Amino acid sequence: MRVLLVEDDAMIGESVKLALRQEGFTVDWVTDGDAGLDAASDQHGPRADGGYDLVLLDLGLPRRSGLDVLKALRARNVRTPVLIVTARDAVADRVAGLNAGADDYVIKPFDLQELVARMHAMARRAEGRAEPELRYGDIVLNPATREATQAGTPVRLSAREYALLSALMARPGKVWSVPQLQERLYGWDDEVGSNTVEVYIHALRRKFGAALIRNIRGVGYLMPQLEDKAAD
């Protein structure tokens, strides 16, 4: 999952970014409201349909308040889920944020595991699924624990193998270009090798079978719809 963190406090921002990366998220961090609005509004951003999977948004931001950022995003029809993370604990502030289009609200200081659980719940709702796991045939991914199994047998995955497989499994039948997949795996400040996506694709095929991921020559990669796979 690729996340935009909009937080002006350097200590909080750095600690949240590092903690979420350890939990398997790809995180980009900006420190003011204008930069947050620009990044979250980017229709050529990390997701194929533009933008991020989720925005973590502080309210007390320089240049433009978090509430104004949220209102502007919704006015632009940016549907990315937004989780407000703020020290403002008054009921009126929570009501204002939720009424402006936020999907959830967490008060600082917060427990990291609760924050991560709320993020996964928001991602499930955005993808239109209720169950906590991702399933594709006999392959099951648990986003909360980052465990993978095939036919009940655990399969060991690196953090980026897991991130790549979960992106493909969430949208079977969708063709992903290499740059789009790179955006799923790397933040702004990460160094990206020229063939890293191909290396991870090869590793996943070796672990789950060569037919799991198809190469659409000159376009990218996809996991076929299960009915298409059965017809092969």
List keywords for this structure.
11 strands; elongated; alpha/beta; 9 helices; single chain; 232 residues; four-stranded antiparallel β-sheet
Element layout with pairings:
Layout: E1 2-6, H1 10-22, E2 26-30, H2 33-41, E3 54-57, H3 66-75, E4 82-86, H4 91-99, E5 104-107, H5 112-127, E6 134-136, E7 139-142, E8 147-150, E9 153-155, H6 159-170, H7 178-185, H8 196-208, E10 214-216, E11 220-222, H9 226-231
Parallel strand pairs: 1-2, 1-3, 3-4, 4-5
Antiparallel strand pairs: 6-7, 7-8, 8-9, 10-11
Helix pairs in contact: 2-3, 6-8
Shape call: elongated
Looking at this structure, what is the CATH superfamily of the largest domain?
Response regulator
Looking at the structure, the CATH topology of the largest domain is Rossmann fold
Helix and strand pattern: EHEHEHEHEHEEEEHHHEEH
Under CATH at level 1, the class of the largest domain stands as Alpha Beta
* Ends apart, CA distance between termini: 31 Å
Mean pLDDT: 87
CATH hierarchy: architecture of the largest domain = 3-Layer(aba) Sandwich
For the record, the count of structural domains works out to 2
